[in-house]
């Protein structure tokens, strides 16, 4: 089992059967090998976020299969799908979505507690991750006291808190100024390589895409030559 993610024949239509229906994904096949880091590029509206949400078990396709670490995720009930996602998939959004009332450390601890990791162990893992991205000294600060780049680094740690094998990221540095974006992106790549993750990272930035192993291009709901 050499593949971390296998997507086969994925289709998705919003508002199916209605006059304003939108056929977003039209038969997507995509495979990520273990340890492979792949850039996903697409024009706006091509279905990139929809595909990432389906791959990350946040949404279900109309047809096709998603296999993660050799396990077929097709047809799982909501509860089981959530459990599989919590344990096996890390997701990073363009906007950090950190919980504002909790500190940086707590934001990285909480998903582990939801995954039944003991508190002390969760805190140790959270501190180690914050240290790796260079912000352990801000561990007790709330998100509002952190810069955009720092907030996003905390979000990276949160995504990796439960040690997933697969990381999915939807324009993870798209909200930052170009200089900060480059710096924070390098931190992310280091983290991904360090943790030995497979990652599918959506970006509009061709320089960032070039830092990854391979580029997959999506257009009009299909994979097209990059
Ligand atoms: N819940 C929904 N209901 C109806 N249409 C939707 C829904 N979610 C997305 N769409 C539509 O599906 C298409 C693809 O959306 P998606 O967010 O996957 O694109 P994207 O490639 O990520 O775009 P962007 O780069 O602009 O974020 C768009 O036309 C969008 O308007």
Automatic annotation (TrEMBL):
InterPro entries attached to this UniProt entry: AAA+_ATPase, ABC_transporter-like_ATP-bd, ABC_transporter-like_CS, ABC_transpr_LolD-like, MacB-like_ATP-bd, P-loop_NTPase
Keyword terms of this UniProt record: ATP-binding, Cell inner membrane, Cell membrane, Membrane, Nucleotide-binding, Transport
SUPFAM superfamilies referenced in this protein's UniProt entry, alphabetically: P-loop containing nucleoside triphosphate hydrolases (SSF52540)
Domain of life: Bacteria
Keyword Mitochondrion in annotation: no
Limits of the ABC transporter domain: 5-226
Any Pfam family: ABC_tran
Gene Ontology terms: biological process: lipoprotein localization to outer membrane; protein localization to outer membrane
Molecular function per GO: ATP binding; ATP hydrolysis activity; transmembrane transporter activity
GO CC, any one term: plasma membrane
Similarity comment: Belongs to the ABC transporter superfamily. Macrolide exporter (TC 3.A.1.122) family.
Entries under PANTHER family matching the protein: IMPORT ATP-BINDING PROTEIN, LIPOPROTEIN-RELEASING SYSTEM ATP-BINDING PROTEIN LOLD
Protein name: ABC transporter ATP-binding protein
Source lineage: Bacteria, Pseudomonadati, Pseudomonadota, Alphaproteobacteria, Rhodobacterales
